[in-house]
Amino acid sequence: MMAVPALSMTGISKVFPGVRALDGVDFECLSGEVHAICGENGAGKSTLMKILGGSYRPDAGTIQLAGQAVRFTHPRQAAEAGIAIIHQELSLLPHRTVAENIFMGREIARRGLLDKAGMRRKAAALLSRIGAAIDPQALVSSLSIALQQLVEIAKALLMDARILVMDEPTAALDERDSRALLGLVEGLRREGVSIIYISHRMPEVMAIADRITILKDGKKVWTRPCDAAPIDEIVRAMVGRDLKDFYPATPVSAPGEVLLAVEGGTNAGLRDLTFEVRAGEIIGVAGLEDSGKGALAQALVGDVPFTGGAVTLRGKRIALRTPRQATAAGIGYLPGDRKSEGLALRQSVRDNALLTLRSLMGLFTRPQQGALAHDVIDERLGAMDVRAADFGQEIGTLSGGNQQKAIIVRWLAQASDILVFVEPTRGIDIAAKAAIYETMRAFADSGRGIVVISSDMPELIGIADRVLVMHQGRVSGAVPRGANEEDIMHLALGLADAPRGEAGA
Amino acid sequence: MMTVPQTSASLRRPARIAINAGLVIFIALYAAIGFLQPNYLEPGLFMNFLRRAAPLVILACGQLYVILTGGFDLSMGAVATLVVLAASILINGDPDTTWAVIGALYVMGVSIGLVNGFVVAFLKVPSIITTLGTMLLVNGLALAWSGGAARGDLPDNFRNLGRLVWRDVSVIGTLPLAAVVLAGFVALAWFGLNGTVYGKRALAVGDNPRAAELAGTPVAATRILAFVVSAVSAVTAGILLGGFSGVSVNAGEGLELQAIAACVIGGAQLLGGRGSVWSAVFGALSLFALFTLLNLLGLPQALRDSIQGVILIAAVGASMWRTRRRN
Fold this sequence. Notes:
- The structure holds 2 protein chains of 2 kinds.
- Chain A has helices at residues 45-52, 75-80, 98-102, 116-129, 145-158, 175-190, 202-208, 231-239, 293-300, 323-329, 338-342, 349-360, 374-383, 400-413, 430-445, 457-463, 485-492; strands spanning 7-16, 19-29, 34-38, 60-65, 68-70, 83-86, 109-110, 113-114, 163-167, 194-198, 211-216, 219-225, 258-267, 270-278, 282-287, 308-313, 316-317, 331-334, 418-422, 449-453, 466-471, 474-480.
- In chain A, helix 12 packs parallel to helix 14 (400-413) and helix 14 (400-413) packs parallel to helix 15.
- The radius of gyration of chain A is 24 Å and the shape is globular.
- By secondary structure, chain A is of the alpha/beta class.
- In chain A, a hairpin with a 2-residue loop joins strand 16 (308-313) and strand 17 (316-317).
- Chain B has 13 helices and 2 strands; from the N terminus they run ααααααββααααααα.
- Chain B has a two-stranded antiparallel sheet with strand order 1-2.
- In chain B, strand 1 (165-169) and strand 2 form a beta hairpin.
- In chain B, helix 2 (43-68) crosses helix 11 (255-265) and helix 2 crosses helix 12.
- Chain B is globular and about 55 Å long.
């Protein structure tokens, strides 16, 4: 028997000036099915979902919901037809309550007046249906990202969504919250909701999806049931190469002298932190969302400084009270949120790569001479394999991987000793990831050090020489290269009886 | 390492020829003036046009510094008024004190710029509010000090800065001193943005202050310096204004908005991150050419204000539309 699919998109094509974003893509999703879409950035995933959500109109092709042809000209029509899209960037109003957000634009009114009690009741019911212990009257800004995501889902359910699109829902979540979210997806599936799941995290996709569709360069490569699609084959279909050599090889030489040492580092979010980074070492930092791993990065770059303790770099005591001091001392920062913290999007690739150099030189330095000359920086950008038609073009037009590489060039140009990476590959496709890992390894091998904070455990295990695990603002333990995820999780949950504050070099 | 296939989204754009929008508008408007009054095409009248446009062009160059860093300076018109009134009171008819007083005016201007800059950079008050405050403050002080009416007189050596015209200069015929001051100021403003790293810092701060700060840019110092440059331009413009229109309590009225409009017409982006000295120069010349044209057409002063409002909105609207289309 062949059930009518809840959603079927046939022959969808979409052309943007100069690029064929989608080329005759077929896609369907049954009710009660989790259908994952995988592909590199730019493969056409988001364009396909924007067409489904009514934000774009397709140039060719048809969309059918439960066998009925539909044609959306406005996102609102799609929402009314039962399609809900949860974006990576949340669309909640931070200063309103949870209930107000859930009912935004669809408030219940009684005789022209808002029925606040009714909305609170219904919001509470929705939230408990998805197993979220959230007070409907709490302000959204007081919730963690994970809980905000749940509010977003509750909002989708209010519309009685039959088709739920989740675009990188776990990108901002740590391991524990991701698992909870996956449990929730499972529950929705049992209620018969069709779920379209977009993620770069392969283990998650494998765990949750019924079927997987691979897109590459705007075309569908294949759709297969999950059990007939081993990870290797998915990756090969996405990037056209094998997964081996994904993480760079372990360095042969042992780490050198101590480069950066933090002793008793303390501030509002960190308690008595002691660890060191040696020349040639990549130190990973793992932990749950509120473990203080983000605060550690902010302290190291002087954004939210340590209030107690001492930091030495190459044996010299350094002050890290502002980002400018940290930068001048030789600590570079690669923020997790490139768009809002890393880049001046409307400036050229060159200007972004030269930003730190120009900021630290004397005010009367000529902006395009000596180390700041076009050909010098172009050579560095070329060596890093930053791909742009012209390094004079706005950096906002580059892909995430190329943007990340341009920021790395910024710190290489400044000859920084220590780089602090936060979520270095979030939202970056799998091919560019490998290139960034390669660059990190090469930077460390040149006798400098890296601290990498990440929620992606396979990434930390693959790239780091040592992983510090944080729990409640302290280092709860350190694991050497080759540890497994369970070891790290154990420490991250604070279950280990390892001595506190010890990093164990 | 194996070659990594890349997304095909990076398109080669056709090389954009850098012609300033303001230059095109200016040429069109000046051609219209020349059509109505052919003698405007003679070097002598063009030089006179430049002389009268000089204060606005100088103000626009100063305003541009603040706009690039993502702010506004609404206090510059008030500073120009203060300069005119203060000069007449301080000099008090004694030509020997002129140069000392001009020095004092610049010190005063720099102080006002520093106040604007410190309040914006450290108290984090939005620049539009900060400079609206200093505008009222400075205007009030100027009126109180002068007793609400123009007082005193400006000696000739002061007024010459705005008024003096050398005759019988080869090739161009006449050369106003104000045009020389104008060229000097524009050259300095150009050097500040293109000859030092300051320009790139200002653009980065205007584009994304948070990213600039994390990359080590001295964001506060960059902002403060922009307000100081803006105030210095206002003092310079005030001195020229005193030269050709004499002492008056509304010498600088409305000039701050004209300066902002000029930058935007020339292609600078409000809220920062895009623009060049040429946007300010040609934007200001365009705006002044438009005023001249309206005068020639015999439109009353009141309508000129309305048209200026329409142009400000149209220019900002067009710049927003261009930005959106590009994305």
